[in-house]
Target: acid phosphatase
Amino acid sequence: MTKGSVRKKKTVLPFRARHCSTFLRRMCGFSNFYRVFYIAIIFGSASTQNHGNSHNANLETLRFVHSIFRHGDRTAQTLFPTDVENTVETWTGGLGELTPLGIKQQYELGKFIKNRYRGFLSEKYSAKEIYVRSTSYNRTLMSATANLAGMYPPVGDQIWNQDLLWQPIPVHSVPREYDPALWMDKPCPTVSDLYKNKVLKSESYTRVERENADFLAFLSNKTGIKNLPLLDMWSVFDPLNCETIHNDTHKRPEWVTEDVYRKILDLYQISVTFYYNIPEIRRLRGALMFHEIADRFRQKAQNESFAQNLKYFAYSVHDTTQVALLENMNAYDGLVPTYAQAYFMELHEINGSYFVTVLKHNSTDSNQLFVVEIPSCGQLCDLKKFYELSLSNKPPDWNKECGLEDKNKLEEKTEELIGILAGLCILFFVLFIVFLAFYCRARRTNWAVLQE
Model:
């Protein structure tokens, strides 16, 4: 794919619906029949829509699971000026907050995870087995806790209240400004320059804007958003999407017909393909996260101390986080993740060799999983190749490549200067007190001499 080009949406089908020849070619690449047999079992379990044991992961080969799920349904995160009927006050809890529906979605996803990995993960919560990390947003933190409530209701001696089958389970996070791995909006001057000088000037981007100029002008007029660019289609789609989901309490503006809404959705999907469509941006958006995941797989395969007992690691994130990860694997299908959409990256050991498979779960109303194919690696990716792929785009120094190194050094020097000045002030104050003490003592002595 050329830089800046629009990616065509790929239809992600259940594994069984895909052409058999691809699978047969992959089978021929393994050294023995047993390895092929295990691969068939792994993918067979992924494609089923049935409940029960057939839906479970293959416990014979499974060694580690890394999930990456989007937060559940939330209130609108942004509003446009002309939509006077839908204001901050009409969204209970404020803007961008998890809704009761979102809590339920995550709770159901947690139950799905528990059922899929039953027999691999313990029935009872074990701090040694799982680790959950979230971005520093209310909606992702709450989503993680709701998800864990579905995964691990208290059992036996964990029950502390018979009327409340829930237990607190830790969710770890770091402030956004220190989280370039999971927060895709962390300020990065280099990325801003790349958008301005490369993405927005690319032939593919300008062509899409040109072809949709009349519709963008129409939206700008109706929403009150001046000079609406393609890259900001989210600011129109987000409030309308939330109003559509919550149509029992919110009403879309009259000008938003079904045809208009469909075109807004399509244009929004296209706009997202430009978020991370060049390697220079992917390098600074998502590459760190991809390598973190691959390195955990490597540690597990090598039985390093950190990963000896760990079986499950989860990220509670945003749609842009998931898209950035998929773009770094060259596996994004052009469809923006829905609320509570989850990806499961499983590490399997087959005859002493390790492989990674990526599965997509896009609805809490269904148990169906889809296999995500990594173009350079296939549907079952050798761990060594997976790890090398994660290294290929990882920046050695994120702050430096983002143009933040000089700023950080300036801040450090400023802090040092402030410290020096503070120290001098304290020293001056101490010297002044000492001088004042000697001065007062000298005056008292002189006064005593005069009195004699």
Q: What stands out?
A: The chain has two domains: 15-399, 418-451. Confidence is low (pLDDT under 50) at residues 1-32, 48-54, 407-414.
